[in-house]
Sequence to fold (290 residues):
Amino acid sequence: MRMPPPDALPWSLEVLGTEERVRPDTLEQMRRLHADSYHAYHYAEEAVAPGRWRFALRDGARLVGYASVVPRGRFGYLSNLVVHPHYQGCGLGTLLDRRRAALCRELELTSYVSCVTVGVQSQRTKVSLGLQRLNLKYGYRVGVFSPDDVSSAATYAGGLAGVGELAGPGGYAVQSAGQKRLRAVCADAADLPRALARAQGLDDFYVDLLCGGAAGELACAHPGLRFVGLDLDLERQQYGYLFQLKNRRYHAALRQGLDLAEAQDGADGVDAAGMRAFAARWLAPAGVPA
Fold:
């Protein structure tokens, strides 16, 4: 039976600031909510991690929804949103999404968020909030909904101030063994060969390369890489060009299929000019948080 819309029911929403301590009973409910909603959730530290705003949505005393925002420089990273399976389909996820986007506007932060591509409702909500889809990450998540699950993710953000240079120190890489992911940041062309060498043999990993302009031009010509859009280097607070390694995990995601609100426009097989043209479509005036 479909439940009434959220504004017709006695929900209560508790907002916890970045310095507020989570009560032990709320903490236990948060952990249980994640355990009830996923086969294997990789962000168990979410409930106790410092430096984030938390939204706790209750039906009476029961926690039925949770979301968070992590302030990172001029960005608000919408890092987690979960609604209990018994309460899904009645607009609670949209309610939480709208509330945390409103917080970002209040704090003058630009929203940045990644969402699953299983179903299109989450993506449509992001678009309704004025966010733009920046990329599509094939096979970004594994084992979240079921043991053999390989699912993809789409990233959305508010206005972009600029793309492509990744000014600052040289490239670096971040690897997560638990989530089987590798992100290599290639600030210039010399970083690209090192990143590709590090990715050798990681066939069951999601591997992407976030490139500055010169590295991106080289990556466009590499047959083993696919241009999948733009993404944010939170450390540098800058956007770059995003490429994904076409390894076994990438192809497994393609075989599973994608449930997307719209096509990944022109992101496959582009040359350097096409890459820059793709980025130009998303540029917006600086300092306009969404």
In short: DSSP finds seven helices and twelve strands in the chain. The two ends are 35 Å apart (CA to CA). The longest strand covers residues 62-72.
